[in-house]
Specification:
Strand order of the largest sheet: 2-1-3-4-5
Mean pLDDT: 89
Bound molecules: iron/sulfur cluster
CATH topology of the largest domain: pyruvate-formate lyase- activating enzyme
Shape: globular
Helix content: 25-40%
Number of helices: 12
Distance between the termini: 63 Å
CATH superfamily of the largest domain: tm_1862 like domain
Largest sheet: 5 strands, parallel
CATH architecture of the largest domain: Alpha-Beta Horseshoe
Low-confidence stretches: 1-6, 449-459
Structural class: alpha/beta
Radius of gyration: 23 Å
Number of strands: 20
Length: 459
């Protein structure tokens, strides 16, 4: 294969990363592998030697966005590799297939790299030492996502993830731990653990027991949280399917080992709809669970997502969902209107809900949630909290930070006037007192600047 010579500039690759945090981790693996081979990166398609589009294929709207990104890359560059969830469905890409260099499914880093090397040979003298240990990250330096498994073995009827990404496949605990060590050494302050089904970690390996640097460690989510919790000031867990093991995780949150943040997608509250979704459908049990979690860890913030307009959802089902929200007062809520996803079992269910009705339900749910969120945030006024600075907003002279109850990108912010903390920088921990609340965000002033103390912070 012909290769670029040592004194020519390295080939430049464009990357488009769409979809969820799991897909973002795949993109990080791809760019790390490219950098290790000596490739450089281009900020726009026109200046790139080839473009990799990491697609999302979960909802029709995400598929449309992915197809749009592929068309754009083809029009502006012409040499395009498609990877990610949409890549697992070649028929969805039929229109473009002939023009693409390669199509691969999600997490197929090696296939992407080998297709790219064929099309755009790497530089002759790629220097392996230009890659930081642990690979390149697309997140700011103070936080990072760590993917602990691929795929999912559940069978939710609205979801095609198990078909796209396969059944649950956990990474060996020592692997995960080694990557975490590299991130900690790099100065990451907040580690966000992601996967399709985080609480199920190790199920597929029968929770195999192993050793890490002389001490025993099972491939089990509670063992992993104990390990990781000792390595980062903040450890946040995402996407916890409501299994009984969550009680143990909440206990670890109460002990300050992980942030008191429970991201549990309940999806609905009506037993009839949950049954049709093939999700745990005993709502009374769920209410008891939530009460128990709050008894174990009173400060726990619960985040959840819901789907409205699922086939067969009646007004009574929807009213049940609203009642559930009024009763549980969940802290952070995302709501999606049900969409047909090609290949999902739910497509065959009767009782389609008209789009305008589903949209009205979504708006009503979010209006209720805004009231709940505003009231819950107002209850925090006067409290102290440790916050992590994400960015400095020069234009508005503000420090933009997050409290333990807020994940990046999806939750609220804590805003602090720079007048009080002129020297704060992204990645700093600050000790603040909450002074005012809005619907999703809080305002605060510093009480003292604190070095990273173990993620307790709330009093
Ligand atoms: S648990 Fe999540 S990823 Fe798995 S099938 Fe259900 S919705 Fe899909």
């Amino acid at each position: 294969m012909p290769q670029a010579s040592a004194d020519t500039p390295p080939p430049r690759i464009g990357i488009v990363s769409l979809g969820c945090a799991k897909a973002l981790v795949d993109s990080e693996r791809i760019i790390s592998a490219l950098r290790a081979r000596g490739y450089a990166f281009a900020p726009d398609h026109a200046g790139a030697d080839a473009v990799i589009v990491n697609t999302c294929g979960f909802l029709d709207s995400a598929r449309a966005e992915s197809l749009g990104a592929i068309s754009e890359a083809l029009a502006e560059n012409g040499k395009v590799i498609v990877t990610g969830c949409l890549g697992a469905e070649p028929q969805a890409l039929a229109e473009h297939a002939e023009k693409l260099i390669a199509i691969t499914g999600p997490a197929r880093v090696h296939e992407v790299i080998s297709a790219l090397e064929q099309a755009v040979p790497p530089p002759h003298d790629a220097k392996l030492d230009i890659l930081p240990p642990g690979g390149l990250k697309l997140t700011p330096p103070h936080y990072a996502y760590l993917k602990i498994s691929e795929g999912c073995s559940n069978k939710c009827t609205f979801c095609i993830i198990p078909r796209l990404r396969g059944p649950l496949a956990s990474r060996p605990a020592a692997d995960v731990r080694a990557e975490a060590e590299e991130l900690a050494a790099r100065g990451v302050k907040e580690l966000l653990v992601v996967s399709q089904d985080t609480a199920a970690y190790g199920q597929d390996m029968r929770y195999a027991a192993g050793h890490w640097q002389g001490h025993p460690m099972r491939t089990h989510i509670t063992d992993l949280v104990r390990e990781l919790g000792g390595m980062f000031p903040w450890l946040r867990l995402h996407y916890l399917y409501p299994y009984p093991v969550i009680d143990e995780l909440v206990q670890l949150m109460a002990e300050g080992i992980a942030l008191p943040y429970l991201d549990v997608p309940f999806q609905h509250a009506s037993p009839a709809v949950l049954k049709a979704m093939r999700r745990p459908a005993n709502t009374e049990k769920t209410l008891e669970q939530i009460e128990r979690w709050r008894a174990i860890c009173p400060d726990v913030a619960i985040r959840s997502t819901f789907i409205v307009g699922f086939p067969g959802e009646t007004e009574a089902d929807f009213a049940e969902l609203l009642d559930f929200l009024r009763t549980t007062r969940i802290d952070r809520v995302g709501c999606f209107v049900y969409e047909h996803v090609q290949g999902a079992a739910a497509n065959d269910l009767p009782g389609a809900v008209p789009a305008e009705v589903a949209e009205e339900r979504r708006a009503a749910l979010m209006a209720l949630q805004e009231e709940i969120s505003a009231a819950k945030l107002a209850e925090k006024i006067g409290r102290r909290a440790t916050v992590l600075v994400d960015e400095i907003d020069e234009e508005n002279d503000l420090v933009v930070a997050r409290a333990p109850w807020d994940a990046p990108e999806v939750d609220g912010m804590v805003l602090i006037s720079r007048e009080h903390v002129s020297n704060a920088a992204p990645g700093d921990f600050l000790e603040v007192r909450i002074t005012a609340a809005e619907t999703h965000d809080l305002w605060a002033e510093p009480v003292e600047t604190a070095a990273a103390n173990r993620g307790a912070g709330q009093t």
